[in-house]
Amino acid sequence: MHNGSLSSLPAHYRAWRWQGSAEPQELALELVPLQPPAADEVLVRNAVIGLNPVDWKVLGGGLVDWQPGHIPGVDGAGEVVALGEGVPAEWLGRRVAYHTSLHGHGSFAEYTPVAARALMRLPDTLDFEVAASIPCPALTAWLAIEKVPMQTGQPLLVSGAGGAVGQYLVQLASTRGFAVSAMAHARHHERLRALGAGECLAGPLADGHAWDGGRLFHAVIDTVSSSHAERIAEALRANGHLVCIQDRVPGWPCPPFGLTLSIHEVALGALHVHGDDTAWQHLTAAGERLLGEIAEGRLHAEVRLVRGFDELAQLLEDLRHRNFSGKALVQIR
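The chain above was modelled as a monomer; its predicted structure follows.
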């Protein structure tokens, strides 16, 4: 490890640890020995943690291979306080945000080991609270819009646009010149219009109901479910694009050599497992641009709900049951 030992840091730190239960309130707040970062990793002293739906969805264990004692969480923002071998010295002391892998210890802690290639530098004017709210939803939205070939003025529908990913998708698609329609509950419509949606539709589609409004869109980006994506595909024109964020459609939604639709799926986890350094440079550069645009007021982050570190498990439970609106954050310091 660069820069000596961890002697200037505490010997132990607090972390919320998984006990094998699918219930957020079964997470246990425990003291954990502080370990030096591995090669190509840094140690981040978290200031604010971002909570995401994936954080409670993985607690059942079916999507991950965790052992009891694992520290969940993927998003955070803080300061780099130690460097593993191979990490440039310039990272020490940097203010950063990150999205980390589900397969290693995560952000639900005072300190988190993070792959150096996953770090995003923060603008000086951006605080940790806003920064921690951004990685998972904004990077997911960016990956999704990158799947769609740019054609100025083409109609694009974001279904399930009222959520965190939709917040960024509407803005990114509008900035790229698409004619954006947003499908969401009516309570979100005013906000979505202000973010760039030219049209707002009631939705999502009720269970079992198909889209019956005709083939209107060059692209549909669905944030709801595989079933919803399959049904909303009826809104696509010939040669259109369906982008699935919450599960992918189980089958191609049209016969071969008919509408010739293109189907895409999005998951940040793909790069954690399969991405090379070039792919990560591309993603983090995009993330830093998004952070800069938010700092400059050209891109708008979600309204935030902030709680203390001791309240993390309850806040994750409330997120699971959608007991509030806005982005759930946990402030450590």
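The chain is about 25% helix and 25% strand.
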